[in-house]
Amino acid sequence: MVVTREALTVRRSNLQDAAQLMELDALVWNEHNTPAPVLWKSKEEYLLASPPGNQFIALKDNKLCGYIGFRPPTSLISNNHVYEIHIAVHPAYQRQGIGRSLMDSMIEHAKREGIRKLRLRVLSSNPAALVFYKKYGFVEEGRLSSEFYIAGTYVDDILMRYML
Length: 164
Description:
- GO terms for molecular function: acyltransferase activity.
- This protein is α+β, with helices and mostly antiparallel strands.
- It has one domain: 3-Layer(aba) Sandwich (Aminopeptidase).
- Helix content is 26%, strand content 38%.
- The protein is built from 4 helices and 8 strands, in the order E-E-H-H-E-E-E-H-E-H-E-E.
- The chain has an 8-stranded mixed beta sheet, sandwiched between helices.
- A hairpin with a 2-residue loop joins strand 7 (139-150) and strand 8.
């Protein structure tokens, strides 16, 4: 599936996208939105964790500006109706509808695949992401209080879900 909206293209990732996706991870993930920096040691390590096709990527004027990754949370057949997701948007492209386009593509794909539930984790230190997810209809499913100690502060790990 390829979706194009006003110079924005959303498509499945491929092998050639790996280097740019690794760079985006290093840029986006910080102490406000993840318990530890996401720094890949090699392209091979990245590809094992994020195989081609397990992300929708957003391209604006042929520049990678965001992605939404998805995978089954376990290898259990009884859990194959669930996708665990994570989303990242380049800081220069935030608040331009990129996250919304990625989430729309994810929801459309999940419905086609027969997925019934999307789940994610978000830190309490990331209020903008919480607002975004709640606006989409994600609800808090659980909270691990003071789960992480980041930059001198205890941070909750919030589990959220979206039922399709």
